[in-house]
Amino acid sequence: MIVTRFAPSPTGYIHIGNVRSAIYPYLLARQAKDGKMILRIEDTDRARYVEGATELIEDTLEWLGLNWDEGPIVGGPNGPYFQSERQDIYLQWAQKLVAAGRAYADPTPPEQIDEYRKQCSQNKVPFLYRNFRPEQTPEWQPGMPLRFKAEPKNYTWHDEVMGDLSAGPEVQDDIILIKKDGFPTYNFAHIVDDAEMGVTHVMRGAEYISSTPNYLALYDALGLERPKLVSLPHILAPQGNKKLGKRDGAKSVTEYRDDGILPEAMLNYLACLGWNDGTEQEIYTKDELTNRFSLDRIQSSGARYDETKLLWMNGQWLRRIYDTDGPEALFSRTTGFWPESAADVSDEYKLKVLSIIYDRLKTLSDLRTMTDYFFKDPVIDLEMLLQNKFLKKLSESELEDLLKRTIAKLADLESWTADSLQEVLNALLAETGKKPAELFSLIRIALSFAPFSPALNLTMEVLGKETSLARLNAVASSI
Description:
This protein is mainly α. Helix content is 44%, strand content 9%. The protein has helices spanning 16-31, 53-64, 87-99, 110-122, 186-197, 212-222, 253-258, 263-271, 286-292, 307-325, 327-331, 347-357, 366-370, 382-386, 396-411, 418-432, 436-448, 456-463, 465-478; strands at 3-6, 36-39, 103-105, 146-148, 155-159, 163-167, 176-178, 201-205, 228-232, 235-236, 303-304.
């Protein structure tokens, strides 16, 4: 049986790296016939705890469709699933180490420990607390830090991504197990919890590799079988020179959602950020990711974050949903993304707008900037018209004449459909002798005063005859 876990700390927003650390455990668990994924909230760092962060984690996972089998909300046989509620469990395991002579109360004040660090720095040697271990220690009791008593030795282990690794005694130390406030450290708590919950695969960032020898020492001291260790490659900043951070422009996952990124696209992109199945395929459904995922295809080197690729992938998903599931399926995702001018407009009309613009969207929030002119008359900007690269060679009188000829031709049109509108536009090209870029740019700008609009005949069909002619007349009168 495969049991994985996602164990975030509720210390703020959930970012890109956090989420990928949830996707791979989810895929591995879902791939197994009887696999399960546990959500555990590691909230023992009370100084960094942020109110509401747990709910944000849960909401993000639910939005991505990463349902968990045990944890908050759903419960399970291995609770509690908040580390702050598991102190009695940690104390029991800590007492085992104390009884075995592998843990001791540390009475050394922090100021003295800082002095030891300074000494090591001056002597240009690594600081290891075990070199300053007190000769005599009091009986351990709450309110006093508890340290592991290391017995340094050579360690070798296999990482499912990084391969066979090893480390010597020089990296092992008397790490703190229980802090002065009575809460366990991550180093101790996660080992106890994984054992108690039957976790078979521990998947986390590659930055934990350097701490693994201390974890292995704890497994041995507690008599625990090692789980499979899976180190995930760093997500790198766009320049590829460092680990991705807030200063590199990466937003929280909820910000991407608010900006109109689809959960399918986010899941797809992050799953492929450090993994591939050996093919050229780029667009994957969740089921496809589940079926094809394997640990041996996770890359060991860092994966560069590329927001442009995410936006491209989101555009692909917008089109896929529209073309595969139907216009209504995509329309149901657009709530909250239309411009204010569309507030009182019928869903039927907005669906018509979506049908001619969906294939140009990169995010749903593009609807706010790309569709406003469908719902209210745009402000006439003659400078935009006169400085257009296709129109600036034409005089104002020529522009006015072209608009009036267009209005006259369109006014006689009885069947206001995309096909009949295209016939009129083609006839105007022949009659005026103008290039499509000139005539169509003039009409398009006069109707929208926007940097982009869909195909001209489609735009006019959706706007309707009355609105189209009124806008063209208004511009003609302004030149």
